[in-house]
Amino acid sequence: MSNDNVKFQHPIYVAQQKRVTLCNAMYDGYDTAKKYLLQSTNENEQDYAIRVDLATYNNVMERIITAQVGMVYRKELIYEDVPEKYLEWFTNIKFEQHLQDATTRADVDGKGLIMLDMPIAGGEPYLVQIKRESLINWRYADGKFTMAVIAEQYAEEDGFKIEYKTQYRHLKENGDIDIWREVEGQGMTIVESITTSYDFLPLYLADLGDLPPMYNIAVMTKNLFNCSAMTANAIRKATDPSLLTVGLGLDDNNELKLGVNSTINTDNENARVEWIELDGASIPIAKEDLKDQETTIGERALNMQAQGADSSKTATQVNKENSESNARLSDISSVMEYMANNIYQGLMRMKCNQDAIGKIYYARDFKDEGISNNLMPSINQAWVSGLISHETALTTLVEKEQLVIDSIEDEIKLAGEEFTVEEVPNGSQSTNQESSNSNTRG
């Protein structure tokens, strides 16, 4: 293989490709996961197709990752000293949505990738998600890419016909781009070279490891999917008895369908028709194995995302699991914070050729404060009875994340303006204090 082969795949890409593909397939759902349903040795093509079609997929990975990403973005990003006009740029390029999408992908297969791009003819920069499976080769050092090759699809049209083919985007350290395609009679050829107005490679990485962090969960989910499909198929066959006929003169080419009220007349006194049912002896064993697998995956999922106490566990167990979960969430937040600031820096250089002003921070408080069912009435009663002030009541609700208020002082003033004076039917006015018990708040 020549050293200038643009299709060359990085050794890490080759080593992890099957694992990455499995993780993405298990996360993306039934349509991509079903290819991992194995065909048994005594199963013909028709029976296998039916079993695949009827299989139910339990997407454990999606639930785990959705919970983790939700915890990372539970609180808003902090834009410290970032000018207001730059915040508008972030809104225009859907900055935070792209960060969340990259967080999801990094959690799924270990690498979240975002490319900052802009139209060839000029215009505003925009963000593009790059899947790990598409980045086939790269050079990465000191927190930045110096070379990258991305395999991507392009449409080739011929009248009514449209065909999707693969091309290779070679991103260079100086920002320039070469597009490579297979050309008949020429092999792999550069069909377009793009000279950009910037002098850096605007591809950004959120790195959670070469080995996908969800690989073990993906393998367990694949095994559970196969086990559940086989068990469901066995139950279906056990409840769908087969018909046995003797002495009716039928051969293998004859088809006989009977309903519950069907009648068969024959002159053969030895003829008989029987329904044969599978005894289903293996079904309880399969169900027990399925239950064990579900329990194992469920426990692993809880360990990865649990933040609350469990009455069935000791305080030591809960603290250990919460520490592991917080450490993982902190790792995710750290790599995403690094990516966010690198994109910000690239955006500033691309738009106005200057360094970023201020910095972006991710929150590190992952604990969901919440409020118990019996505490809310107590707070309300204490406030109504005059035992605590407006400020204390609102401060408690904000700290427990039941309300989102920018300024408690302004909120109290606003509440006073809206509710101090009430209209009464005869046109006169009365205050809340006058229309309520003097010892309580109205």
Which descriptors apply to this entry?
42% helix, three-stranded antiparallel beta sheet, 442 residues, five-stranded antiparallel beta sheet, alpha+beta, 12 helices
General description of the model:
By secondary structure, this protein is α+β, with helices and mostly antiparallel strands. It folds into 3 domains: 1-128 and 207-241 and 278-368, no CATH class; 242-276, no CATH class; 376-431, no CATH class. It contains 12 helices and 14 strands. The strands form 5 sheets. Strands 4-5-6-7-8 form a 5-stranded antiparallel β-sheet, with no helix packed on it. A 3-stranded antiparallel β-sheet has the order 3-2-9. A two-stranded antiparallel ribbon has the order 1-12. A hairpin with a 2-residue loop joins strand 5 and strand 6. It is flat, with a radius of gyration of 32 Å. The relative contact order is 0.12.
